[in-house]
Automatic annotation (TrEMBL):
Enzyme class: hydrolase
Keywords, alphabetical: Cell membrane, Glycoprotein, Hydrolase, Membrane, Metal-binding, Metalloprotease, Protease, Signal, Transmembrane, Transmembrane helix, Wnt signaling pathway
EC number(s) from the headed UniProt entry: 3.4.-.-
CC cofactor: Co(2+); Mn(2+)
Function, in words: Metalloprotease that acts as a negative regulator of the Wnt signaling pathway by mediating the cleavage of the N-terminal residues of a subset of Wnt proteins. Following cleavage, Wnt proteins become oxidized and form large disulfide-bond oligomers, leading to their inactivation.
A Pfam match: TraB_PrgY_gumN
Manner of cofactor binding, per the entry note: Divalent metal cations. Mn(2+) or Co(2+).
Protein name (record): Metalloprotease TIKI
Organism field: Leptosomus discolor
One CC-aspect GO term: organelle membrane
Localization per Swiss-Prot or TrEMBL: Cell membrane; Membrane
Membrane topology: Single-pass type I membrane protein
A Gene Ontology biological process term: negative regulation of Wnt signaling pathway
């Protein structure tokens, strides 16, 4: 029931009101029906919307991609224990083999190919820092693959905000996202 849903919406009482809404990085179709009407109404009523990062900005996307890379031309094979690296490689080979079976007919109908999808998600994985490879591997599940092509909630809301001609922006820079994760030592990862 709508009245029983926790909206994760905070209201800052001022004129006009301001709102803070907690989102999660999952395909919006998984959560949209569970977002209460008060949150959707606040979004529609707002003239400006600010996100964690501006996921519609190509510089943000390229900055996120470059921050994931190991420094000085290093490879993952240089920094991971040998057995762990080989287990990871075998797992990614398995994912690549399973990907065509996990894809939906709708994805295929949109011209999405398994090799393209694998490269979009895991391309250049041997050059990435371990923390980013861990996050990548966590997203390489059948459920996540089947929802590829559906924007995550943040991106969906940003696209909707742009479509509705709302002013948009970000409260963080790429560096503020990357440096804490890149600062984790190997045992923490």
């Amino acid at each position: 029931q709508q009245g029983e849903l926790n909206s994760f919406l905070w209201t800052i009482r001022r004129d006009p009101p301001a709102y803070l809404f907690g989102t999660i990085h999952v395909p919006y179709t998984r959560v949209w029906d569970f977002i209460p009407n008060n949150s959707k109404a606040a979004f529609h009523a707002s003239s400006s919307v600010y996100f964690e990062l501006d996921l519609t900005d190509p510089y943000t996307i390229s900055g996120l991609a470059s921050c994931q890379m190991l420094p000085h031309g290093e490879n993952l094979q240089d920094v991971l224990p040998r057995e762990l690296y080989h287990r990871l490689k075998r797992h990614l080979d398995y994912i690549k083999l399973m990907l065509p079976h996990w894809m939906t007919p709708d994805q295929r109908g949109k011209g999405l190919y398994a090799d393209y999808l694998f490269n979009a998600i895991a391309g250049n994985w041997e050059r990435k820092r371990p923390v980013w490879v861990m996050l990548m591997v966590n997203s390489l599940t059948e459920t996540d693959i089947r929802s590829r092509g559906v924007p995550v909630l943040d991106l969906y809301l940003a696209q909707e905000a742009e479509r509705m001609k709302k002013k948009t922006g970000a409260v963080e820079r790429v560096e503020e996202q990357c440096h804490p994760l890149n600062g984790l030592n190997f045992s923490q990862v």
